[in-house]
Amino acid sequence: MLDLRTGMLFRRRRSFHADQEVGAPLALRTTKHYIQVMLSPELLKLLAFDGEDLEVISTHLQDAAVKSVDMAFLPREKRFALVVDRYDWCGAQSGERTRRRSGLHFERVLGVKRSHFEQNCEKSEVLLSISFQASDDPAGQVTLFFEGGGAIRLEVECLEAAMSDLGPAWPCGSPPPVRA
Question: How far is it, in rounded angstroms, from Cα 170 to Cα 172?
Answer without folding.
Answer: 7
